[in-house]
Amino acid sequence: MARLEDLTLFEAVESIKNGEIEKEGLLETFLERIRRLNPEYGAYITLNEGAAFREGGDGTGGGSIEGAPIAVKDCICTKGIKTTCGSKILKEYVPPYDATVVSRIKAEGGSVIGKTNMDEFAMGSSTENSGFFICRNPWDRERVPGGSSGGSAVAVSARLALAALGSDTGGSVRCPASFCGIVAMKATYGLVSRYGLVAYANSLEQIGPMTRDVRDCALLLNVISCQDPKDCTTIPRGKEDYLACLGRDVKGLRIGVPREFFGEGTDPRVEREVWNGVHELEGFGAIWEEASLPSLKYALPAYYIIAMSEASSNLARFDGIRYGTREEDEGLNWEESFSKTRGMNFGTEVKRRIILGTFALSSGYYEEYYLKALKARTLIRKDFERLFKDFDVLVGPTMPTPAFRIGEKVEDPLEMYMSDIDTVSVNLAGIPAISVPCGFADGLPVGLQIMGPPLGEGKILTAAKKVEEGLGLNLRPPV
Ligand code: GLN
Q1: What are residue 114's DSSP bridge partners?
Q2: pLDDT digits (tens, 9 = 90+) for 342-373
Q3: Gap between the terminal Cα atoms of the chain
Q4: Are the beta carbons of 227 and 235 closer than 8 angstroms?
Q5: Please, is 465 exposed, middle or buried when counting C-beta atoms within 10 Å of its C-beta (0-12, 13-18, 19+)?
């Protein structure tokens, strides 16, 4: 049998069920690996040493991920376990409740093994904006793992967890998945509850599974997707079994390849591997055709204006009084106290976004920026709608380049924002997208992005599974 840490989530759960392995042993394997390897990778901020399983499936022990230790991004609330959002301002915050996704994991017999490193408040694409320490890519430790869910991607790729949850506001599960050679999905807006996810830009974000393979992604999506009375934006609908989509074939599947996804700045090695993935699908009987998404050129500015505007409002509550660490403020009036606490505990990128977002929402500029961005958002959504009349799925690169070097972009925020060019439009349109490994560029993983119409998760999982099957890549990072 494979080493315990190499089992997929699906395999581990099966092996526990069959009595081939014990859940305590599996958990201890991961805890031991984290203690030994985390100093090197920086994947976890908090380890849940006391992780324990309760019998899932309503106490019968019949949960669908019975015995599985899952890593959870540190902006998702976990009862009794520190939830910092990668920020000094929340360094001591211990939530009194579980996010709905965490309750779902527990209800299915899984447990939270630890909380993963991230860009502060999920703002970034490299995890270098973490308020605590950076995180390293297991394929090349001088490179970033991507972000903002970098810690979750590293935990999965370096075998420090069976699977993980991340959050995706503009690409934050797909980007690190692409850079670390794993699978991750941002589902349709409203498929997964955001209750207990600390908000960055709530009209854009979804919590998503980050896993070693497509089957695990479907399994974890089964666990976390649900209509939730605590999040009124969740979609009322029956449960779909995403695992059932994996065996379907792609004969006759219509694939659109929007040329705008291969614009300036796309690494030719990425382009090559992405086409390789498309041809793999073609080999299974899918039909591809070039397509066009002209409004993609508005995606980055629209995304950043909307995300920063929402962030400036969402982060107002961290003032040391309502939420967050409070600095010594004797003799200060409340404005001075707020400023001191926020000035000392927010990092540079977070401050930049609060300032820009406040500006975009201020009177006189609101129409010029925020409102215009909303209009661009509508154009983008309509562009996708038009394409989904002709195509079942759209494909392109997840990221325009493979993982970049630590320090390469962190001093130049615009450079960093540009790397999100292929991911943000999906969040603006509210549609689902998956990143699945499709090859390597000089030893660094490359991700293929498959996008679908609203609630088209089944279709994109089917297609992703075929890519994975056809390519049969070895995705264990070098030791
Ligand atoms: N890189 C994007 C940003 O910085 C996306 C982050 C995310 O999805 N949380 O906003």
Answers
A1: 47, 71
A2: 999 999 999 999 999 999 999 999 999 999 99
A3: 19
A4: yes
A5: buried
- Is the previous residue joined to 130 through a cis bond, with omega within 30 degrees of 0? no
Give the model confidence (pLDDT) of 283-320 as tens digits.
999 999 999 999 999 999 999 999 999 999 999 999 99
Alpha-carbon 456 to chain mean position? 18
Do residues 24 and 68 lie in contact, with contact meaning Cβ atoms separated by under 8 Å?
A: no
**Ligand 1 atom closest to Cα of residue 168:** 8
Catalytic residue among 23, 64, 73, 309: 73
- Name the band, by pLDDT with cuts 50, 70 and 90, for residue 1: low
φ, ψ (nearest 5 deg) of residue 169 = -100, -35
Please name the residue that has the structure tokens 């056809």.
470
Q: Is ligand 1 within 6 A of the CB of residue 419?
A: no
CA gap 465, 174 in Å, rounded: 16
Catalytic hit among 125, 172, 193, 295: 172
pLDDT score of 50? 83
Q: Are 459 and 392 in contact (CB under 8 A)?
A: yes
- Quote the ligand 1 centre to 28 CA distance (angstroms): 33
Distance CA(261)–CA(421), nearest Å, equals 8
The hierarchical CATH code for the domain 4-248+463-471 is: 3.90.1300.10
Distance CA 116, CA 145 (A): 13
Concerning whether 148 is annotated as a catalytic residue, the answer is yes
